[in-house]
Amino acid sequence: MAPENVIEVRGVTNQFGSHVVHQDLDLEVRKGEILGVVGGSGTGKSVLLRTIVGLQVPKAGRVEILGKTIYPREASAKELNEDIGILFQDGALFSSMTVAENVMAPLREYHHDISDKLAQEIAGMKLSLAGLDADVGQKMPSDLSGGMRKRVALARAMAMDPAILFLDEPTAGLDPISASKFDELILGLKESLGLTIFMVTHDLDSLYRDCDRVAVLADKKVIINAPLDEVQQLNHPWIQEYFGGPRGRAAQGAKLAFGSA
Ligand SMILES: Nc1ncnc2c1ncn2[C@@H]1O[C@H](COP(=O)(O)OP(=O)(O)OP(=O)(O)O)[C@@H](O)[C@H]1O
Known about the structure:
InterPro entries: AAA+_ATPase (IPR003593), ABC_transporter-like_ATP-bd (IPR003439), ABC_transporter-like_CS (IPR017871), P-loop_NTPase (IPR027417). It comes from Parvularcula lutaonensis. Residues 7-244 form the ABC transporter domain. The chain has a single domain, classed as P-loop containing nucleotide triphosphate hydrolases (Rossmann fold, 3-Layer(aba) Sandwich), CATH 3.40.50. It is globular. By secondary structure, it is an alpha/beta fold. It has helices at 45-52, 77-83, 99-110, 116-129, 146-157, 176-193, 204-210, 228-233, 237-244, 246-260; strands spanning 5-16, 19-30, 34-39, 60-65, 68-71, 84-87, 164-168, 196-200, 213-218, 221-226. Helix 6 packs parallel to helix 7 and helix 7 (204-210) runs parallel beside helix 10 (246-260). The site of adenosine-5'-triphosphate (ATP) has 10 residues, from helix 1.
């Protein structure tokens, strides 16, 4: 594994029945970067995320995280879970638990000896990192807005102090103001904690604002993994339509305005 990489995917094939989603796919993620993963619907962005975190067993290939081999399986779930945090697309909070219990859930699962007091303190710290007041911990997920639930899910993903965060469409379903605040939060976490972030997204504003590099899934592979301005130069029909369309141009305009503010 090259020293600058924290994730390496080599020659991965994923297939469901006769439907080949990925064929001989390669990807590298570098330490400390935010990588945006984009592609048309059904190109396999979530399947790629699930493969990297060990939830989807590929038909072929090799996956390494921080030098540990995830496939062919060598690292245990515990080892892996100490390195990574995942924010799933729907937040996936436990509806019958309080917010604080949700945030503490990974600690409880992997550190049975942790005291209640310490777990509560850690939950409070993680909620605060995610931009929430500690008193939110006593509430139930159903009492919160969509934006707050995403923040709780982020706090839970951070519970084990991961080196890498995986975010599956973190701003989906948020209004533009909440989405923009969430983008800011993610950028702040990367800058203050030095996290590496793998972010599947359809949100062009997040790409322009947050991402150091962008990986594009098309034709069953990652066709380019590069800074955004390089990606936009690639003469591929999906890329040209996605970035050159009205929404792409608007997001680029917003970035320029934001950058010069
Ligand atoms: N467990 C599964 N069984 C069968 N097919 C699956 C399974 N998981 C994913 N697929 C298929 O794999 C393809 C890629 O799915 P995936 O959810 O990764 O797409 P995506 O790029 O994340 O799409 P979207 O942007 O719409 O969320 C889809 O055709 C999907 O139906």
